[in-house]
Amino acid sequence: TIKRPPENPPPRPPAEVRRKQA
Amino acid sequence: GPIILQSYRVIADYEKNSKSELAAKNGDVVEIVEKSENGWWFCQLRNKRGWMPAAYLEPLDGPDESEEQDPNYEGDLHITTKDYSGELDDELSLQEGENVEVIHKLLDGWWVVRKGSITGYFPAMYLQKSGETA
User: Fold this and answer.
1) What would the DSSP string read from start to end of B45-88?
2) Which ipTM value was assigned to this complex?
3) Is A22 in the B-facing interface, judged by CB distances under 8 Å?
């Protein structure tokens, strides 16, 4: 299988996760 | 023998934005085939395979800090390989070819970098180790 990752950076963590980390 | 894949729980719904990605719902359990340092992980969900953002996944056995590297406050020299304009206020905007110091390599592919006196997140995907002094 050819597994090429997407060309764009992955999204930042979902908003609810960022709030939990803060 | 059989290859045992690590299982991770999806922590928020994820819609795919390109063909090679994998869509999943909050609470799905995926198996990790490959972890890329740029924050995209190749996952398997039932009979489907594709890339998912590591930031949307957590290990089944609770938070996994063992793989996370410690910050390096001295900074690891890298060069930016692409222009990037920060979208959130904790991100840096840099042009291609700028020298930066990587302070913390996070598994989600968003690294903490320092440019002069400014520090913020930048996509690991657009960073290359420079190995040269700035």
Assistant:
1) ETTEEEEEEGGGEEETTS---SSSPPP-TT-EEEEE-S-B--SS
2) 0.84
3) no
